[in-house]
Amino acid sequence: NAGVTQTPKFQVLKTGQSMTLQCAQDMNHNSMYWYRQDPGMGLRLIYYSASEGTTDKGEVPNGYNVSRLNKREFSLRLESAAPSQTSVYFCASSDRGWDKNIQYFGAGTRLSVL
Amino acid sequence: DQQVKQNSPSLSVQEGRISILNCDYTNSMFDYFLWYKKYPAEGPTFLISISSIKDKNEDGRFTVFLNKSAKHLSLHIVPSQPGDSAVYFCAARAAGNKLTFGGGTRVLVKP
Prior knowledge:
Chain A is an all-beta fold. Chain A has strands at residues 4-7, 10-13, 19-25, 31-38, 42-49, 56-57, 64-68, 74-78, 87-94, 104-105, 109-113.
């Protein structure tokens, strides 16, 4: 019963390097999300995908791009990493519908940009 | 401008006593509220929720109260157990099922 799986769990980058964070869910959910968590800031939405084939910006999208590869997978790309992107990144998924508000989260990717 | 605020960054409580976590919001368009629990090195897990048309929802030891006029919600944990030690986030839903999270409250339950 995997739920939401994120890879990698840890990553260290140098400023200017690029990388892609992977996320996959096996719950047949329509919607997927990327958040970042910083101390005292809670979780802030970077991008989300309401359904396969659509993506939209969240609260803090600058410096990131996303791809909804299929219904299961939603990736987050940092084209040119900056120290301000040091954070813990969480992927989440949810079903659609007024009564289906619960988002299920992966275990996170801890990223350090030096 | 934080639309969802948890003003207490930490809370310490004795095992068996009540834990009360508070959350304030500013956006009157929020129509659904959730509490998540997070252990270190894990993702947040859903705990309990409440619709804006209700003022109370209970699930075992956990009760969430909503005061719409005050734009305030609280989570009560009774009795508190050592396994409840974690960070708790409140979240509010706006259009498109997007959640806005508070900054979190770290709870420590002492045996």
